[in-house]
Amino acid sequence: MKILVIGEKTSQVKIFANTLCSRVTNSKISKYIYEYHGVWKNSKGLAHNFTFLPLAGHISNIDTVKGYGWGECPPIKIVYDPKALKFIDKKNYVTILRRLMKSSDELWLALDPDSEGDNIALEVVNILKSTIKKRKIPVRRIWNSSLTKTEIIRSFEKPLAWNDLMAWGVQGRRIIDAWLGFAGTREVTRAARAVAKVKVLSVGRVQLPTLYFIVQRDVSHETFKSRDRWRLYASLSETTNKDRSKYFEANHINGLFDDEKIVNKLLDKLIGSNTAEVVDIKNKNTNQLPPKPLNTTAAVSLLSRLMKVNAKKALDLMVVLYSKGLLSYPRTENARFKDNFPHKKILSSLLTHKPFLPLIKNIKQNNQVVVNGKKKGVEDHDPIHPTGQVTGLQSLDKQQLRAWDILSRYYISLFMHDYIQAVVKVKLNIADELFLSEGRTEIQKGWKEAHNWSTKIPKSIPLLSVKQILRVVSIKIQKKPTLPPKRLTDANLLLAMESANIGTKSSRPDIIQKLVDRNYVIRKSRNLISTDWGRALIASLSPIWPEIVTPSFTAHVEKLMDEVAKGNDSFNVMLNTLRKEYIDLHSKLIGKIGEYKSLIKRMNLQSQATKLNTQNPMMLALLEKQFKILPEIPNIPSESDEN
Q1: Do residues 139 and 61 share a domain?
Q2: Cα separation of 488 and 310, whole Å?
Q3: pLDDT grade, residue 641 (50/70/90)?
Q4: Would you say residue 312 lies in a domain?
Q5: Beta strand pairing status for 2-7 and 47-54?
Q6: What pLDDT score was predicted for residue 43?
């Protein structure tokens, strides 16, 4: 049986071929394109004569047809006319695919096992459509969860029937993105060029809402008006203890004071007080459950935060680990493992890595995670996890090894005991004023034992009893000005994008990088800060095109395309519905293009190459006013949150 196997990248094709076939040969068939040959016998003894062809990602791109280029027509016509956009296949791959298919009995699609891989597979099937139909060629899909030998053999032993539903969901996103990319960009750029020096102002369905989040946080940070507050606290010690390291603090029961006069008056009252009486003690144990499994966005956010790398680099590290058979497929929406997942086998394999031995020996259970997350999306991959393979670790560089260690420790922590703290709250009386002190002591390290990046030590206080008299070492006031919201980083921006349902697990890191590449955003330390042109785009478009600038339209598209991918709705019906919706939105932009030009002109931006924000007062005031009526950034965890 002669089978044509299509792979997404040369590196992965080589892994498939060398894993399955005892002898692999290759031949150059075009510039930079090779085919690989080998024979594989499956478990039933049936020989498969494989020809592997690696692609280089998508083999088609979208462009406008003649008459719809820059300046050839009003941009909105690109959306009106379904024939204005065309998919252009790379000619060399068309020729090669058709030639190889002539001598093949079956077509196996071993592209990346996700919806994006399915979309590339659809491109291949469309090119070979007439041959497949004429000769009734079976089309199979290879769906592997990792690149370990066991998983590769399993997926080739049981290839799936080809189903193109997920591919059409991606196809819809690509077409809608092209409407905005071609029509929206041209409309916005043409208008801006009439009043300012502009090359191209790129707008995108996911790009604009992501930029909106960054600009909104920047404006909140820069327009924040700090106000002073005051803490009144006592430093205390047991009367017989003169060891300064044993001193502990208690805050006035009113917490932070807004009025300095009031806190000074209280201080005057308390000065000279030498003793404090314990009037109440409350003890309570708090249990913190192990964290939930990681989907792609959460894993990238974790690596970005702990390794201080950008989101794209974090995802690239995961891809490398996958290619070496050390990590599961790195693109998944799910945070829930299937009930029959082989956790026991993976943990048993990880035992051979000595640093993990004491951790795995202390786990609560090895057959299921303590807290399972939610299944999301239409793809069926399990959450991010190590494969259990430890051979090959020596080939990793320092960053790759650190990424593997973090993700493996996180996985092990899912099976461990709760983290338990004893919390004691003590109420004290000093000169008829009440103070509170809280101490925490670790009772059970639990899952945090695996998280060696968790270095925060809980603050404890001495063991006390009611009516006990303590020595007041000092009573002081501390001024604590309120702090502005922190700038966004790659790590928490990813979580904001996921929360708002904009972008996909694969595209989010690339979108952030595009904003940097286009000078809409710069990275300063780990912070993402919008430039003048990034702010100008949001300031000028948000009042006249809020549906596109805020997450509402893109989240709507994602939801509808998910329904296509699930088979609940027709691709063509859904596309026509969205075409009408976008035409209405684009018409709204045209109707307010004069207002847009006026806003761009008022900002008096000198060069599109502006790299540092100048905190333009007029622009800040305009944005601050707009953000009062536009949606807020989703509530996202801070970078200090453990889970």
Answers
A1: yes
A2: 12
A3: very low
A4: yes
A5: parallel
A6: 92
